[in-house]
Amino acid sequence: GPGAAAAAKRLPDLALRPLDEAAAAAVRITAELRVADEGQEGMAAFFDGRRPAWAPEAGG
Q: How many domains does the chain have?
């Protein structure tokens, strides 16, 4: 979703950090996104076989 896309844009900055620090930050970011409302909706939609509420309509 939108929040995950914004977080993904920050991930290249982790390449400048030491590996252990970058890995820990990536795990933290992933965990935070997963438990957020947007992440919960995305996972529920995936398992239900539907588009998440935040996804644009197909073809639009």
A: 1
